[in-house]
Amino acid sequence: MTGRGLTLLTLLTAIAFATLAGFAELRLRAEGMGVFDARLLGYGAAEARAYLAALSAEQIALYESQFRLADTAFPALLALVLLLWFRRGARGGVRLALTLAVALYLAADYTENMLIGRLLDLGPEGITEPSVATASLFTQAKWAILAVCLGAAVLLWTRKERTTR
After folding, report:
1. Measured between alpha carbons, how far apart are the two ends of the chain, in Å?
2. How far is residue 51's CA from residue 47's CA, in Å, rounded to a whole number?
């Protein structure tokens, strides 16, 4: 892929993220609480119960359908963009480590989605401390791994920019 094509794909990925986040904010916010997926520091059982109880039936249906579908496609798109950047900017063991980090991010995000889906199915009365703790752990892991990947991508891009001048 050309540098221009990768830049365009990166921009489209950023727009996709903004769209997903905007949809979550506008359609899935309930009583001031946002979606589980966006809680960088995780959440506890009391927070999860409160959020699930505050969601309307329409919001739960949106969370389980449109949002989940988009949140299944987006991580794959983001992973592709990260892998393409790492392929361009890293070599050898660094490239391998970053590729594994992207795989871990993708696994954490998809596992988180599955666990959050289970919380939605169980509802506020059916969730347990362990089920919430596990989902929350994967939410935090997803964000931590993604921070490492994005930081590496920025560093590689910055290094490349300096060497091409």
Report:
1. 21
2. 6
Question: What is the Cα–Cα distance from 110 to 125, expressed in whole angstroms?
Answer: 24
Determine the Cα–Cα distance for residues 58 and 70; give it in Å rounded to an integer: 17
Check residue 31 and report its DSSP letter.
T
Whole-number average pLDDT of the chain: 95
Tell me 55's DSSP state.
Answer: S
Which three-class secondary structure state does DSSP give residue 143? helix
- The answer to whether the pTM exceeds 0.70 is yes
**Within a 10 A sphere around the Cβ of 33, how many other Cβ atoms?**
17
d(CA 108, CA 18): 20
